[in-house]
Amino acid sequence: MKLITLFSRSHCSGDVLRVLNVVMLLTVWLIYQPDTANASGGESVLDRIGHATEKYDSYAVKAVQPLPDETVLSKERYQGGTFRVLARKQEIKRFRCSSCHNEKPVTVNKGVELTHGDINLSHGQPGALSCIDCHHPEKRDFLEDKKGNTIDLDHSYQLCGQCHFRQKSDWLGGAHGKRTKYWAGERVIFNCTTCHDPHSPRFEKRFPATYSPPIN
Fold it and tell me: Which pLDDT score, from 0 to 100, does residue 146 have?
């Protein structure tokens, strides 16, 4: 009311005063009106403020329930039985490969550079491996091992294990890789390509982080 009186003394027009009256009435109504979402309790905004036990944080963001990870049932077994691995195909930006690798002619200039220019093939000894050593030469949406077996990209560990057999044995037992779910419940673990870039799988060397104990 003091605000309205102040504006009336400053020769405000009648329209401005009417707008101010409406604003003031709405403000009072919102403060003392019971929350419609909690109408059963009849608690007003002021009541909720008075009952609050934590400091209001205007920067706080409510946690969003994460979507479950896409997994596939492993085609391998370990001492505990069956388990699941994180899927791979959903992480590949240009899958399905057959959408480009088919009988249709490529009409785009420098198509290889545009689609695969970011691939640095550094797997094994220099010049030892090529794309076709892992990718199926005909079924481009699949992998192929040295025995001619067709391997789904979601089960790339079957291909990796033909050379990295010790790591695969450790991976099956839980000493290599990572489990993504809690110990109680179904076993879900990382796929090989979850951590390793299949085209350049070796991790870059780095020094461990140093720690200095406090002086006092």
Answer: 87
State the pLDDT at residue 166: 92
d(CA 212, CA 170): 34
Q: Which of 34, 35, 15 lies closest to 23 in space, CA to CA?
A: 15
36/43 Cα distance (integer angstroms): 9
Angle at 135 between CA 132 and CA 137, to 5 degrees: 65
Residue 155 has pLDDT above 90, yes or no: yes
